[in-house]
Design goal:
By secondary structure, the protein is α+β, with helices and mostly antiparallel strands. It has one domain. The chain is about 45% helix and about 20% strand. Strands 4-3-2-1-5 form a five-stranded mixed sheet. The protein starts with 8 loop residues before the first helix and ends with a helix.
Length: about 130
Amino acid sequence: MAEDNKCTVQGSLKSVIEEAEKLEQYDEQALRRFIRLQVQNVDLDTWVYLGPSGDYVLVPGLFCSCNDFTIRVVGKREKCYCKHLVEQAVSERKKLYKTVNLESFEEYVKILNEILTQNLTSTLRRKLYSR
């Protein structure tokens, strides 16, 4: 079990930040796969990791839609976070991410729905690569 089950919101955020600060070697290409989603007039802190084998939704320090988070963090409670949460914190600190401004809340929901049901977002990829 993860450190006496200290996987509280505050404990998890602290753990992710501490791990990110300790990470000396990192894959810069992987860190550039993080996308911060912004919707006009809506205060959200939602990120997407565009992976080579699937995309994941992240809420920094709290949630990732990857299998490791679902199985080892939520299910077995072996740890408080997955590697994507740590890498997202590093990507943000080193400013290696992209920000995508979405036109509507409906577009935001569509992207999240694609990732959560298909493990891939064609909507966000089109938006990124058609600029």
